[in-house]
C-alpha cells in the first residue's frame, strides 16, 4: 500500500497488489436483513454468511493470502512427526524473533491455554496492558486475576496519543513492588485489540519488560496483532524511524521470555503457537502440546496452513504489505469523522471502531449500546461488525453486570479483502444510520451462557426499533438494496 500524491488532490490509499481470485457476494434486501438479525438472536456471531454483504466481524483467519502463500501450500510436507514444513516454520520464527524453540498450537487461544495451565494458579495476578476475551477466560478459569495497566489515555475514545496501548509504567512498578510474589508473568498485547487495535511504543514495551524482569517476572508477548503494531512503531515513533521492521521485531522479541500468537492474524493464515528463548521454559510447557493440540511438529495445524504462515511471517516484514490494513482503516475512520460519526481516534489496526456510547447515547449501558449498534449496522447495510462492549465482558462472581470501560462496534478490515468502493459503501450506510440514530433502541438477553456469552448468547430488542429502522430505510432509499 502506498501513500501516493494524487494530481487531483484526493487522499486515498493505493493498493500495491492486484486481485486474482474473488468470491461472489450477495446483498439481501433490508427486510431480509432484519429477519436474519432476529433469527440470529441479535448476535452478529450467529448470522449466516449468505445473509452478509461485508463481513467485518474479524480479521481472524480471513485475510487474503498472497500468490506465494498459496504456492507454498502445495509443497507442504504431510508427515505426522518431523515434518519439513515444521522445520521451515520454526526456522522462520528463529530468524525473526531470535527464539530457539517453538511449540505449535491450533490457534491463539490454545497457546493461551498452554501458558495459563503452566503458570497460572488460584490467586495469581497477571498484569497486562489490556485483556483480550479468550486470554482472560483462561486466566480466570484457573482462579487467576487480570490486572489491566493501560495508561488512562488508552480508554479515552478520542485522543491524539499515538500509542494508546502503552502501559502506565508507574502503576506497573507499584503493582510489581507490592505483589510480585503472586505474579508469575506479565502479558503485553501488541496492537491492543479491545481498545481499538491500538499500539504500544517500542520504548514503552522495553521499559515495561525491564521493570518486570527487575522483579523476576516473566514477560509474555501476545504477538497476534504484531504486524499492525510494527507499522505504527515504524511510522509514529521517532526513535524507530531508522530501524527496519526486522530490527524493531528483534528489539521487541529480545525483551520477551515467551512470544505467542494467533496465526489467524499474524502470518495471514490459520494456527498459532509459542516461541521461546529458554530451554527450561520450553520443557515446562512442552508436554501440554501433544496432550491437547497434536504432535510436537504440527500441534493441531494443517501443514498447508503452516507453510502459508511461514511465507506470511516473511511478508509481514514488508511495509507495503502491512500498511494496507492501517491505511484502509485510517481512510474509513477519517471519512466517518467528516460525517460527524463518533469513532475511536487515532485510527488503529485491525478495524475501524465506532463509539456506541456517543452514537446512541439514549441507549443505557445495561441495554448494550455496542450490541444494539452492531444489529443496526447490519440491518442498515448488510455489514457485520463485532460488539466490543459490555456483552463481551463476563459477569462478576456475584452475577452482577460488569459494565465495559468502552462500548465499541468493531468493523474489522481483513487485510486486502475489501475494495475502496466497498469501504465507501460502509461509510455511506453508517452515516445514514447516524442521521437516524434516534430510531435505534437497546437489547436484552433471552439466552445467556455463563462464559464467553458474546459468542452464543441470544438477545431481543427492548422495543420494536428494528421495524422502525427498516421503514426509515425504505423511505430513504426506495427500492435500493
Ligand atoms: N490474542 C489476541 C490479541 C487476539 O486478537 C486473539 C483473537 C487471540 C489472542 C486468540 O486467538 O482466535 O486464534 O484463538 N482475536 C480474534 C478477533 C478472535 O476477532 O479479534 P485465536
Molecular structure report:
It is a single chain. With 481 residues, the protein is of the alpha/beta class. The protein has two domains: 187 residues, Aspartate Aminotransferase, domain 1 (Alpha-Beta Complex); 251 residues, 3-Layer(aba) Sandwich (Aspartate Aminotransferase, domain 2), CATH 3.40.640. It is built from 19 helices and 14 strands. The strands form five sheets. A five-stranded mixed sheet has the order 2-8-7-6-5, sandwiched between helices. A three-stranded antiparallel sheet has the order 9-12-11. Strands 1-10 form a two-stranded parallel ribbon. The structure holds ligand F0G. Ligand F0G binds next to α4.
Question: Could you please say which CATH topology of the largest domain applies here?
Answer: Aspartate Aminotransferase, domain 2
Number of separate strands: 14
CATH architecture label name of the largest domain: 3-Layer(aba) Sandwich
Q: Percent of residues in beta strands?
A: 5-15%
| Helix-strand category | alpha/beta
What hetero molecules are in the model? Answer: ligand F0G
CATH superfamily of the largest domain: Type I PLP-dependent aspartate aminotransferase-like (Major domain)
Radius of gyration: 22 Å
- How would you sum up the global shape? globular
What's the end-to-end separation, in Å? 31 Å
Amino acid at each position: 500500500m502506498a501513500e501516493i500524491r494524487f494530481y487531483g488532490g484526493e487522499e486515498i490509499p493505493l493498493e500495491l497488489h492486484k486481485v486474482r481470485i474473488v468470491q461472489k457476494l450477495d446483498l439481501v434486501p433490508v427486510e431480509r436483513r432484519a429477519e436474519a438479525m432476529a433469527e440470529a438472536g441479535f448476535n452478529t456471531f450467529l448470522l449466516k454468511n449468505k445473509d452478509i454483504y461485508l463481513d467485518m466481524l474479524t480479521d481472524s483467519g480471513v485475510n487474503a493470502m498472497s500468490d506465494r502463500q498459496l504456492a507454498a501450500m502445495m509443497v507442504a510436507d504431510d508427515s505426522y512427526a518431523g515434518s519439513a514444513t515444521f522445520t521451515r516454520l520454526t526456522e522462520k520464527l528463529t530468524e525473526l524473533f531470535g527464539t530457539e524453540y517453538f511449540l505449535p498450537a491450533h490457534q491463539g487461544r490454545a497457546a493461551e491455554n498452554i501458558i495459563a495451565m503452566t503458570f497460572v494458579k488460584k490467586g495469581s495476578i497477571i498484569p497486562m496492558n489490556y485483556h483480550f476475551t479468550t486470554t482472560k477466560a483462561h486466566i480466570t478459569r484457573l482462579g487467576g486475576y487480570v490486572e489491566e495497566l493501560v495508561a488512562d489515555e488508552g480508554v479515552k475514545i478520542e485522543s491524539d496519543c499515538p500509542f494508546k496501548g502503552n502501559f502506565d509504567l508507574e502503576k506497573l512498578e507499584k503493582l510489581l513492588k507490592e505483589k510480585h510474589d503472586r505474579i508469575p508473568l506479565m502479558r503485553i498485547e501488541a496492537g491492543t485489540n479491545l481498545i481499538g487495535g491500538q499500539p504500544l511504543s517500542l520504548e514503552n514495551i522495553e521499559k515495561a519488560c525491564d521493570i518486570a524482569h527487575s522483579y523476576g517476572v516473566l514477560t509474555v508477548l501476545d504477538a497476534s496483532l504484531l504486524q499492525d503494531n510494527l507499522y505504527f512503531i515504524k511510522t509514529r515513533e521517532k526513535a524507530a524511524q531508522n530501524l527496519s521492521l526486522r530490527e524493531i521485531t528483534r528489539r521487541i522479541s529480545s525483551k520477551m521470555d515467551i512470544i505467542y500468537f494467533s496465526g489467524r492474524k499474524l502470518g495471514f493464515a490459520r494456527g498459532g503457537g509459542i516461541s521461546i528463548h529458554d530451554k527450561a521454559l520450553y520443557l515446562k510447557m512442552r508436554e501440554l502440546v501433544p496432550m491437547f493440540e497434536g504432535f510436537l511438529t504440527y500441534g493441531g495445524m494443517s501443514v498447508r496452513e503452516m507453510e502459508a504462515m511461514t511465507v506470511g511471517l516473511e511478508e509481514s516484514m514488508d511495509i507495503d504489505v502491512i500498511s494496507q490494513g492501517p491505511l484502509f482503516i485510517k481512510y474509513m475512520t477519517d471519512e466517518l469523522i467528516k460525517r460527524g460519526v463518533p469513532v475511536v481516534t487515532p485510527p488503529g489496526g485491525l478495524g475501524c471502531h465506532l463509539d456506541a456510547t456517543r452514537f446512541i447515547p439514549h441507549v443505557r449501558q445495561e441495554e448494550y449500546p455496542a450490541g444494539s449498534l452492531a444489529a443496526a449496522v447490519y440491518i442498515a447495510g448488510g455489514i457485520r461488525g463485532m460488539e466490543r462492549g459490555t456483552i463481551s465482558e463476563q459477569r462478576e462472581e456475584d452475577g452482577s453486570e460488569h459494565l465495559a470501560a468502552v462500548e465499541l462496534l468493531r468493523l474489522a478490515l481483513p487485510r486486502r479483502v475489501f475494495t475502496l468502493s466497498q469501504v465507501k459503501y460502509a461509510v455511506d450506510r453508517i452515516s445514514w444510520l447516524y442521521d437516524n440514530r434516534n430510531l435505534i433502541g437497546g437489547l436484552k438477553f433471552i439466552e445467556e451462557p455463563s462464559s464467553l456469552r458474546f459468542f452464543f448468547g441470544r438477545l431481543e430488542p427492548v422495543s420494536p426499533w428494528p421495524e422502525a429502522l427498516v421503514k426509515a430505510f425504505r423511505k430513504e432509499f426506495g427500492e435500493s438494496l
